[in-house]
């Protein structure tokens, strides 16, 4: 087996030159403005199941995308070929599209004074020097740790070690040109316990820019096993109204619906359940949410957004009151506002933790449902109606009693947000949203 795979990238100078050439050629061909992104990346994924190698995957990607403007007509095209002819053909294709596109008075590059001019080192690139044999050994140890944890773990969906590295450069005709390399690595494990109709599965994973910050593989396997075994002998519930505690690994999803509702495209299309709520209370007064782009090694960190606009720390929600939207230049113009540096989405979304740990949240809830898994996609982004299949645990007297399954939890996000009783300090950093467990005062739990 050849375990040596070349990860050599173009140099930063080489990518910058490609991007500059694209912008220059677009201007020569009649574009009044243009922007481009040139990128390349490497990935290696190794999965082991029952001690045997199940998959080994490599990918090498590269691409260039370009947006050109003829006045306020916009065209976009992309290519995976970096040859001079291919890049010029791509620009020509974008210009042809622009010539036949309707004018849009909100189209165009960001205002020049919004562009980033400072580029701090956010420590986002940490290559993982791991060959295939080493990845196989780590994945095998992760899976074996799960099997060793409890003899009731008798099957596996596999353990995976994933390596990702990349580099990109953005440029536009206003003179902006910048980029950086980045990395993101992960280890995951998913196992099965029980027999027949009583089988249960669960998983765990770790993810980080720097592989040294990922939880040890033995711990990932152990947690995956413990989470699986605790779900055995699950019961059904009768329909009830009760508090619901969303465990930290899934609680961030509640705020994902919020982000979508206050993002530019939903707002200017009037397809959001949080229309016209700026400077109004949308959460309970114990909630603060910050968008933080400059956390060293943060999984959502960047000095500029997808348009080259500088990013900045800001409070999006203070004491439950909505203080800002997530806008790129186009959506900001549609709304008569300024870009917030969120073209491409949020950065590190930090939901400020409260004082209670996980056990403290259970005691505060006293009696209700702990949700550890959500199923389906029953969320209406226009009305906020929320209905999801769920599994978890029933809680009495502030303590977990038994696992439950085949239930549905329902409510409306506007009400749910305003009735968040507490956010725990059991914050997990597995992605760009950082959130502890979330306790909601009352929801409908539909069972048998």
Secondary-structure map with pairings?
Elements: H1 12-28, E1 33-49, E2 52-70, E3 73-79, H2 84-99, H3 132-149, E4 153-172, E5 177-193, E6 200-208, H4 217-229, E7 240-246, H5 248-261, H6 264-268, E8 289-292, E9 314-318, E10 321-322, H7 329-335, E11 348-351, H8 358-365, E12 368-375, E13 385-396, E14 399-412, H9 413-418, E15 420-423, E16 433-434, E17 438-446
Parallel strand pairs: 7-12, 11-16
Antiparallel strand pairs: 1-2, 1-4, 2-3, 4-5, 5-6, 7-17, 8-9, 8-11, 9-10, 12-13, 13-14, 14-17, 15-17
Provide a compact summary of the structure.
With 448 residues, the protein is of the alpha+beta class. Helices cover 23% and strands 36% of the residues.
Structural write-up:
The chain has 448 residues and is an alpha+beta fold. The protein has nine helices and 17 strands. It has helices at 12-28, 84-99, 132-149, 217-229, 248-261, 264-268, 329-335, 358-365, 413-418, and strands spanning 33-49, 52-70, 73-79, 153-172, 177-193, 200-208, 240-246, 289-292, 314-318, 321-322, 348-351, 368-375, 385-396, 399-412, 420-423, 433-434, 438-446. The protein has a six-stranded antiparallel β-sheet with strand order 3-2-1-4-5-6. A five-stranded mixed β-barrel has the order 7-12-13-14-17. A five-stranded mixed β-sheet has the order 10-9-8-11-16, covered by helices on one side. Helix 3 (132-149) runs parallel beside helix 4 (217-229). It is globular and about 70 Å long. The N and C termini lie far apart (54 Å). Mean pLDDT is 95; it is low at 1-6.
